[in-house]
Backbone:
């Protein structure tokens, strides 16, 4: 001991850690914390959540054939029914036969109702009689419940114009449907 009664080793401070030593200490502390968390979780490995890492598996961003992309777009947007009905409009002669198709034409499809216009009142009456069979055929082709009703319209003419310059007696087309 020295003359003041102190140990020379006590007076000295330990040298402060340098950058490398601090990094080693921080790494050791992080490893210890990771071990503690692993034990707290029951020693199980954490599973990666899907979507957090890209990989070789297929996902929605991968390239695909054009028809597959169009089918996916049609499904996502809910366009199946309108596209199916548009297909029926194109295949109308195949569905109803060439004789009916020559005189009756589908106009529009709204609220599960198909509106068909005929070129004469005789064909309109004929189509009204055939409507239940056509509805069954369309539903078999498109899916049950797609077409609920066929509305038949007779031949169209100009709208009746009333006014001071209208000639009495001219009522439009010579057809009696209406």
Residues:
């Amino acid at each position: 001991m020295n003359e003041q009664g102190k140990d020379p080793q006590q007076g000295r401070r330990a040298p402060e850690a340098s950058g490398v030593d601090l990094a080693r200490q921080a790494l050791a502390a992080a490893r210890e914390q990771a071990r503690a968390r692993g034990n707290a979780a029951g020693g199980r490995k954490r599973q990666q959540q899907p979507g957090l890492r890209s990989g070789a598996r297929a996902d929605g961003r991968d390239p695909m054939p054009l028809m597959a992309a169009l089918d996916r777009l049609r499904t996502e947007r809910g366009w199946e029914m309108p596209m199916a009905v548009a297909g029926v409009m194109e295949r109308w002669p195949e569905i109803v036969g060439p004789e009916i198709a020559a005189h009756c034409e589908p106009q529009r499809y709204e609220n599960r109702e198909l509106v068909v216009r005929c070129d004469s009142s005789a064909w309109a009456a004929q189509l009204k009689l055939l409507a239940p069979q056509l509805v069954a055929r369309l539903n078999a082709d498109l899916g049950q419940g797609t077409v609920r009703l066929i509305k038949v319209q007779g031949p169209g003419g100009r709208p009746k114009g009333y006014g001071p310059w209208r000639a009495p007696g001219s009522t439009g087309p010579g057809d009696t449907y209406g």
Q: What stands out?
A: The chain has a mean pLDDT of 75. The chain is about 45% helix and 10% strand. The CA atoms of residues 6 and 12 lie 11 Å apart.
